[in-house]
């Protein structure tokens, strides 16, 4: 439970900093002792719901809802889905019905607003991943997810409040864009976030590697795919990441055969759809 208190305290501090408020100024606005605010942010006190209610109105975020979300485990199913989302290969057009159906069940059975918002965002996100050969529809679904609980500021990304899943959804928004420099701007913004776990960093660095490869900066592309593979080391090996490394090496006329072989061997054993996806892509490149 103390770990959860620390997580909530850090969340409170991050929100205060995002609002450009010092502890002193927040104490003045809330009439809560500055020592109490400091202790809350450092998880040295039990959280008083009345104080959280006062701070919620000043910081424009429902701290009570967030407190219960972090301190208790009624959101654990959603967190498991998020963890699964970032820890296995996914690509456009792949069936996501298992996740979507589970999220619909969670949404319909929960009475908590924050859980319903997360579930709805993720439903739209997973639906966007099922879309194939329709970029406009895919982008529309991702935009609906980002704007589900308020207007998202795409020009100044730091103006937004980000839940953990919003970083993942924003990553897929970048995939929908045609402007590669804009994609990189978004990816670099996400890269600077300090709350990302290894799974989402692996996905992020894989995406950045793909952009640098398209921009013909193979040195950067190889650097980022190696980082992606390193951050993904606690998960089963990613066939798609290995395939990406193979094509970068092949483009540089470096030994690549072991990587494409491993990518095909892994996917053939674990996911026939991924195997066919990689095989089709590789054959087209070799032509």
CATH class of the domain at 4-61: Mainly Alpha
The SSE order reads: HHHHHHHHHHHHHHHH
Q: Count the E strands.
A: 0
Main beta-sheet strand count, sense and barrel state: none
Q: Examine the coordinates and then state which fold CATH places here, giving the name of the CATH topology of the domain at 4-61.
A: 434 Repressor (Amino-terminal Domain)
Annotation field: number of helices: 16
Strand residue content:
under 5%
User: What gap, in angstroms, lies between the N and C termini?
Assistant: 57 Å
Cα radius of gyration in angstroms: 21 Å
CATH superfamily of the domain at 4-61: lambda repressor-like DNA-binding domains
Describe this structure in words.
The N and C termini lie far apart (57 Å). By secondary structure, this protein is mostly helical. Helix content is 71%, strand content 0%. It has a domain at 4-61: Orthogonal Bundle (434 Repressor (Amino-terminal Domain)). The chain has helices at residues 2-18, 23-30, 34-41, 49-59, 63-71, 76-87, 97-109, 113-130, 135-146, 164-175, 180-191, 198-214, 218-231, 239-251, 257-270, 272-286. The model has no long low-confidence stretch (mean pLDDT 89). The chain is elongated.
SSE inventory with pairings:
Elements: H1 2-18, H2 23-30, H3 34-41, H4 49-59, H5 63-71, H6 76-87, H7 97-109, H8 113-130, H9 135-146, H10 164-175, H11 180-191, H12 198-214, H13 218-231, H14 239-251, H15 257-270, H16 272-286
Organism: Anaerococcus tetradius
Keywords: DNA-binding, TPR repeat
GO molecular function, one term: DNA binding
